[in-house]
Structure formats: C-alpha cells, structure tokens
Amino acid sequence: MKPIHSKGDILFRKPVLSDGAAVHDLIRRSPPLDLNSAYAYFLLCEHFADTSMVCLDAEGVIGFISAYFPPGRRDTLFVWQVAVDARQRGKRLAPMMLASLLARPECRHVRFLETTITPDNRASNRLFERFAADHGADIDSEAFIAGEQLGAGHPSEMLRRVGPLDAPLAKAS
Ligand SMILES: CC(C)(COP(=O)(O)OP(=O)(O)OC[C@H]1O[C@@H](n2cnc3c(N)ncnc32)[C@H](O)[C@@H]1OP(=O)(O)O)[C@@H](O)C(=O)NCCC(=O)NCCS
C-alpha cells in the first residue's frame, strides 16, 4: 500500500484490514471516544477505507479518522471518530488527516462535513471550527442524540455541520 502522502516521518494513507487491531487500541487509549468492538474497526478499515484515514510513524498507527457518506447524501462526509495518539497531539495531525482525506478523488462531491461532538470536547470542537474558518464556511450546531438516549451517563451528542464548501477539495481523478 502506497502512502497518500507523508510529512516528515509520518505517513497518511487509507486503512487496510490489518490496521484494525492497532486502530482499536488507539481508540481504547483515546477517551472520551466510545470504544467499539475490534471487529467493528476491522470492518471500518476494510469496507470504509475510501473515506477513512490512518497516519503512522515508525512505531505504528498514531492517528485515525473513520468517516462515510450517509446513504443518499454523497455531498456530505460524516466524520464518525477522530483520534490522535496522546503523544502526538497539538501538532495539527488531525487537520492534516482531514485535509488529506478530503483531497481524495472519492471525496470530490463533498460540500458538507458533519460530525457529532459532546459540547465539552474542546479539542474536537476546535478542530471543526478551525476547519470551517480555514474554508470560509459556516458551522452549525444542533441537538442530535440526547444523553438519556445513549445511556450509561453518556453526554449528549451535538450534530455539527460545516459548509457549504465553495469548491471541491478533491483533485480530479
Ligand atoms: C481531537 C483530536 C483528534 C485533535 O487532534 P490534534 O492532532 O491534536 O489536533 P490539533 O493539533 O489541531 O489540536 C486541536 C486542539 O487541541 C489542542 N491541543 C494542543 N495540544 C494538545 C494536547 N497535548 N492534548 C490535547 N489537546 C491539545 C490544540 O490547542 C488545538 O486547539 P487550538 O486550535 O485552539 O490550538 C485529539 O485531541 C484527540 O485524539 N482527542 C481524543 C479523542 C477525541 O476527542 N476525538 C474527537 C472526537 S470526534
């Protein structure tokens, strides 16, 4: 598998099936993200590779984005989980992963970015607010899933929608 691009010693590429265990471990180490089953991450790496991203250093996977096109809405990329290894945070790896993902030909129809965030997740809110500002796009916020519905003391998830993005960010295939 060729990297999509690299920055220094860090490679950015589509995930492959064999990344599943490392991605599962990264999410386990990245509260407040919900940890899904290892099986779910293997499926994401295999079936959603075109819209997901890993970045790696010499020690392995240090960043991950899972995302997909909601059924029937190919102009919208729904970003499910974003994680950067704690020792690599604050170096803009998450925005670089997002930019690299959106530059793929598979994302050429994307005009909106959606994600859900708990209101207290400052780093995550900053990531998407900065992305919107960098692209001169609006960012809206609306209730999505209430904490009581999620149960187990889970905070509410707000839907944040960025867009419209003026021009396709992807390079033509
Ligand atoms: C959210 C996250 C993916 C951002 O990744 P990142 O590569 O550190 O992103 P950035 O470098 O752009 O930093 C994002 C913000 O975190 C802040 N930050 C800086 N250093 C940090 C550190 N060591 N630890 C946490 N946050 C830090 C930055 O100040 C930045 O805010 P700013 O834009 O006001 O400067 C990462 O913090 C993370 O994995 N968090 C745990 C999982 C999570 O909450 N995921 C998001 C849910 S979708």
Give descriptors for this structure.
173 residues, alpha+beta, Aminopeptidase, 8 strands, 27% helix, 29% strand
Question: What does this protein look like?
Answer:
With about 170 residues, the chain is α+β, with helices and mostly antiparallel strands. It has one domain: 3-Layer(aba) Sandwich (Aminopeptidase). It is built from 5 helices and 8 strands. Strand 4 and strand 5 form a beta hairpin. Helix 1 packs across helix 2. The radius of gyration is 15 Å and the shape is globular. The two termini are about 20 Å apart. The site of coenzyme A (COA) has 22 residues, from strand 5, helix 3, strand 6 and helix 4.
List the topology elements:
Elements: E1 5-7, E2 10-13, H1 20-28, H2 38-47, E3 53-57, E4 60-68, E5 76-84, H3 93-102, E6 112-117, H4 122-134, E7 138-145, H5 147-150, E8 157-163
Bound molecules: coenzyme A.
| Number of spatially distinct domains | 1
The first-to-last residue Cα distance is 18 Å
Bound molecules: coenzyme A
CATH H-level superfamily title: Gcn5-related N-acetyltransferase (GNAT)
